[in-house]
Structure formats: C-alpha cells, structure tokens
Amino acid sequence: MELLPRSPAEFGSARYWDRFFRQRGQRPFEWYGAFPELCPVLRKYVRPRDKVLVVGCGNSELSEQMYDVGLCEDIVNIDISDAVIRQMRERSASARPRMSYLLMDMLQMDFPDAHFQAVLDKGTLDALLTDEEEATLAKVDQMFAEISRVLQVGGRYLCVSLAQAHVLKKAVEYFSREGWVVRVHQVAGSGDEQQFVLPVFVYVMTKFRKIPGSAAQILEICPEEQDKPMRVESAEQLVAAVRDRQHYALLCSQISKTPCREQVSLDLCDKESGKPRYTLHVVDSPSVKPSRDNHFAIFIIPQGRETEWLFGTEEGRRQLAASAGFGRLLTVALHREQHYQGMGGIQAELSGKVMELAPPGLPARQQVPFLSVGGDIGVRAVRHCGSSPLSGDFVVEDVKGDGSCYFRRLIFLQNRNVVQSEARLLAPTPLPGQKKRRKDKKKASPTEPPGAIDKSYLCCEHHKAMVAGLCLLGGPDALPGELAVLVVGLGGGSLPLFVHDYFWQAHVTVVEIDPSMLDVATRWFGFSQGDRMQVHVSDGLDYVARLAAEAPAQYDAVMFDVDSKDLTLGMSCPPPAFVEKPFLQKVKAILKPEGLFVLNLVCRDARLKESVLAALRAVFPLLYARRIQGEVNEILLCQPGPAGRRDPAALGARARALEGALRRPGRPWDSSYALADALQAVHIL
Prior knowledge:
The chain is an alpha/beta fold. The chain is built from 19 helices and 27 strands. The strands form 4 sheets. It has a 9-stranded mixed beta sheet, with helices on both faces.
C-alpha cells in the first residue's frame, strides 16, 4: 500500500516515481496489457524499420519484448524518474544496443520535429489524466502537442489505456479536431497480479495534415474478436461503444465468480450493421444440484417464439431452466433482421462468446450442450414491412409454432417483444383431382408456410375471454341473438372477424385510428368488410364522444382492444384517456341498459391500475375480472346496472351453452379450446 500515491497529482511527480521504483526494485511493473495480448495490435502499426518513442516507459518489459521478438529495435524510452532510467539502462545496455533510455519530461521533449514514426504510451495518459481540473487538462494538451510535434505525418500514436470515459473522450476530441484518424482496438486484459477485470484498449491515432475548414472525422472501433473496424459518427458514440464493452467485461467477471440472483440480459450485435443479432438471458437455478454434466447449457429459442410466455418472461425462463435441469441456462433469442446458418452455424458463432458467461465451478474442457425445441432454430418468414406515422415501423411475419402449426403475426417494432395481432394459418389442402405427393418426391420447403388464415381460431387468450364474456348478454334463459357490437382497435382483425363469423346475427362496427392497420388486416389477415362489418378510420375517443351526443344507447357490446403508443407509461393497453371517468361515462351512454363493456387492460403499474379500477367502479356498478394466466392482460367485463348480475361460478355453464349455439354446420370450430375455459377464475370486483 505504501507504493500508492497520496493524491492523484503525484502520478505526475518525478519524486513519487523515483520512490516507487526504488521500493519496487528490479521487478517489472505492468499496469495492464501484457505483451502477448498487445502484440497483435502492435504488429499492425509498428514496422521493423520505424523509429519508436516510448513515453513514460517505467520498468515495463514492453520495449524489451518488442526488441527481442524483432518487432522493432530503434526504440527510445523516456521517463521522468532518474531511478528507473538508470535501472533500465543497466538491464538493457549490453543485450539491446540499439535501444536507449533517456531522462526526459514528455511535456518538454528535446527531440526535433517529425523525428519518430511511432509513439507508444502504456498507461502514461491514464496516470496523467486523473481528473478534469484545468491544470490537468493543460498538461494533457501539452503532452498531445509534443507527441504531435515529434511524429511524422503518417506516424501513429499508440496509447494503451483502460479507456475511462473522460480519458478516451479527451484523446478522441483532441486528435480528431487536428484531422487525425482515430481507431480504438480492444485487447484482452491480464494486468499485474490480475488486478484489472476491465478490458484494455489501444487508441491508434494516425497523423494527417490538417485540412483548413474541414470538419470531417474518421472514428473507428475494432472489437477484439474482429479485425475489420466499425465506423462511428461521433466521440460520444465511440465512448458509448467502449463503455458497453467495459460493462460486458465487468458482467462476465461478476457472474463467473457468483451465481446470478436476478436474470441478466444482454444483446450481441452484428459485426457489420451493429444491430442486435442475439439476445441472451442468463438464468441460474439454485435448486439444481450441480454435477459434472449439468453445470451449463445453451438454449436456442426457435425463431418467432421468443414472445411466448415460456421464453419471453422471467418466470417462464426460470421454469425452463429448472425443467432443463442445468445450474445455469443461457437462453438465446434470434432477431428477425438477421440471417442464420442453422443450428450448427449458430453454435460455431456463439461457442466462444457464451463461454465468457459460464458459471463458477464449470470443469475445465467441459462440453457445453446446445439445446432447442425439436433440435432446430424454427422458421420465420417476413411477409411485409411497413411504416405508419401513428404506429411506427411494423412487420408481418409467418412463424412456425409448436408442432406443425404456422402463425401470422403483426409486430410493432417499437415494442418488438409483443405480438400485436396473431392468426393461425391453415394447412394447404389438395385441389380436386390433385394426387397426393409421393413419399419419395421432394417435400415442400419448410421455410414456406401456408398462406390462408384460419378464421375459426383465436390465438390470443385475452380474445377468447373477451368473446366468452358475451355470454353475459341475453336474458337468464336466453343467449344473445341479434347484436350490435362496437370494437375499438382493429389490429389484424381477428377479434371482430370472429364475432362477425360466429355471431351470425351480429352487426359489427370497428373503429381504427390508423389507416395502415386496415390495409394490413385486409391484405394479410383475411379481414373484409360487408353488410354486417363496417370499419371507420377515426380516433376512438372522438367516435365514442360523437355517438354519445348524437345516438346513445345503440350498442349491446363495446369492446376496447387498443394499444398505447406511449411506452413510458406503466399501462400499454389502453391509452389512459380511454379509462378516464368522463370518457367511461360516454361509453356507458352508448350502451343499451343491459349492455356490456369489455376492456382488455394491460397495466404493470399497481397504483395506476387501482386508479383505473376505481374509475370503472364509479361508472359501472357490476364489474367482472378475468386475469389471463402467464400474461399481464386482464379482461374486465363491465355492465351498466346490477340487474344483470350473475354468479361467476355459473358463467362456465352459460359459456358452454353459448359455444353450443355458435357451433353450427358449415362453420368450423377449433376443438383445442372451449369458451368455458376462457372464463375460468372470473371474479366480481
């Protein structure tokens, strides 16, 4: 501890360094960045014929190792400590005759202009730039100016650094302003006595003649796993890119020593585009008793299934890890903008990176299995990409679900982990007279899912509950017959289509604020208008307010399934204005006395949710709730008067009766679900 300075300012003091090296003795001191890790970068930028200056050389072995491996011999080392210069002269005088050690202050060097082809700095800038006080920054400017003076045009200043944000930003801003090319390399870090878990970086600043009036900057970063540099637009972006790598290194260090109490999430980005390619979640299972073969596994989530509860929620992933029987499970989600070369290609691409996230106690050379559902990476086919001023960028994609079923999904990219609308696709049927495909014939491509929409199937559990809630309509012994239904929020159109097709006496009015969604529903989800189905492109707030004023009490059911575009709120469905008391009173006004208001509520903010429920209770005396298992959605069934009150336990039987009435010849009904199941656990609020 006596080697540490009393204040950061002592890092610039010759007296401190003399004392430091006398007390340390002959043992070399490497702040960080051992030669084997630095050598690949140095070989790129230092040529054997170069004249190299090492500033603040200390008693590091770096210059000696460069000399001994033939990287470069004409090396001049300078330092402000007389003690270390005498020590290093004695160590290298006979063995390295072309290398010299000089007592000199890098802030006032005696060399002529343009004397060197390369200047090497290993930790010196970090030691000098300990704070951002005016005096410190002035010294750094003087250091940079001297380095610039003694470097030839085309020469390189190589600075080995831990890249603290203020250090990197200062170097980048200074040299890019002077017209130099700035490139940052990441190298592996293995400091003296393994003190540093942060990665080591080498700033490579290449000197160019400054062009008057030019503001162009060339800023690049080279991660350790690739040679090709990535261009960035500003010093801030470069600092952010370095900071991401530092955070990753700290994360890897932490989880390699101790189990994760909470799930850790991170993105691995594509080398070319910089866009996310893989999303990883580290899930530890303390209940799993470790053995040699169950420490660690990688689970590849099939494409398109990352939004499912098992893969897309913390609790789901926790159950997945426990059932897999591994102490640590690393789940890997694949992104739709990326192309993948099958399971083998993904395994080859990720094998090195995922081992950085291995748990403590993993045996050496342990084979880590890659797991998936059915052993493949799934199928995802993007059918349509679009953009809307109201909904932002969106995609329509077909994905393979569990088993042989395919699904079509609408995804808003501002919230890409949420499926906005979903429909099942029908399996292709042979045309009349068409022979069945022989077994030895070429099979259809697995990447080409069928195209027709299965309108008999409601994919979303909350849609099933919303439809089942219609059993509250009608008399005690009668089911709903002719209905007038208002649906606010079209999406892909599955909900209003189902009501239209199965409630054959229903007249459905849909209000959708975004005309792009009407086009998507019509073109990609089998939606169509007709005598009993009309769409109004309008703001739902305005439409309901106008009806309340002009034509009240005309609807048997009003259904809200509309998302909020404001992702900063704790409620993603509906927008807050739709559940304010004055507007709810207008909703009540357009309902018939025995009508039903059905609301899909998605609210993670407990306090906000309670205020919504309070507003609903103030307007609707009778309120049923159905929580969707495994999801945040809660379906609220609201009636304007207590006269229609029914025992929640009896709703299952009424829903079964409604299902029996909806099933009829010529209209298929999917047997995998029942409306009575959709009303399980309904309770009165």
